Amino acid sequence: MTPSLIIYILPPAIYALLFHFFWGRGYGQMALYLAASLLGFALGVLVARFLHSSWLSLGDVPALEGSLGALAALLLARRLLM
User: Per residue, what are the HEC states of 52-80?
Assistant: First the structure.
C-alpha cells in the first residue's frame, strides 16, 4: 500500500468513525457515513486539484480541502438520515 493511498483512506475513515460515535445509531449508518466521508474527501481533493489549491498538504494529498469535503458530505448524510 502506498503512503498516498493510506492518506486518501485513513482520514475519511477516522472522520466517519468519530461522526458515527457522536451521532450514529447502527451499523448501517456507519457504512453510510464511511461511504459519504470517502466520497466527500475524494470530491474535496478533486476540487483542490482543479483549482490548483493546496493550503495544507500531506505529501501530494490536499488534506485540508479533502477534510472539508468529507465534513460536508458527512453533514449532508446526517441531514438526509434525519
Answer: CCCCCEECCEEHHHHHHHHHHHHHHHHHH
Quote the domain boundaries for residue 43. Answer: 3-81
Task: List the chain pLDDT tens, one digit each, 82 residues.
Answer: 788 888 889 999 999 999 999 988 888 899 999 999 999 999 999 999 999 887 888 778 888 999 999 999 999 999 998 7
Please give the tally of structural domains in the chain: 1
CA pair distance 37, 70, nearest whole angstrom: 4
Residue 44 · residue 66 · CB < 8 Å: yes
Any idea which residue has 485513513 for its cell? 10
Bridge partners of 43? none
- Cross-strand partners of 57: 62
Would you state the cell numbers that stand for residue 31, as one nine-digit string? 457504512
